[in-house]
Design a protein that fits this description.
Blueprint (H helix, E strand, L loop, with lengths): L3 H16 L5 H13 L10 H17 L4 E6 L5 E5 L8 H17 L2
Helix pairs in contact: 1-4, 2-3, 3-4
Length: 111
């Protein structure tokens, strides 16, 4: 199995090839959130609050792969709601970044 750094670089390349530039972590969280909510539209205008909500969904989705969150339900509009199993604040900033990157790799690899 390839090491994590190689896998992360492959995901970065795939995202860069797809979008023409490398998205930062906030943009990646937004993309994951849009995918999970099922509201992918290049023409839709999102409010600041909706963008934050989509990034939150993205982060929870990625962290659920690490066992920190669990999908509780989807509401009538299809938005997922998660429950916290282990608060991420219990981890240092560097470890939070690593957890998110690992989640991104697993998400885009289809694991």
């Amino acid at each position: 199995m390839e090491n994590f750094e190689t896998r992360w670089e492959a995901v970065e390349k795939m995202l860069q090839d797809r979008f023409g530039k490398l998205p930062d972590m906030e943009a990646i969280l937004f993309l994951v959130g849009m995918n999970e909510v099922g509201k992918i539209s290049s023409t839709q205008k999102w409010s600041k609050e909706q963008k934050q909500d989509l990034m939150h969904v993205g982060a929870c989705t990625l962290l659920s792969k690490k066992g920190l969150y669990e999908l509780e339900r989807k509401d009538e509009e299809g938005w997922p709601h998660f429950k916290i199993l282990t608060p991420i604040e219990a981890h240092g900033l560097k470890e939070q970044e690593i957890l998110l990157k690992e989640g991104v790799v697993e998400y885009f690899e289809g694991s």
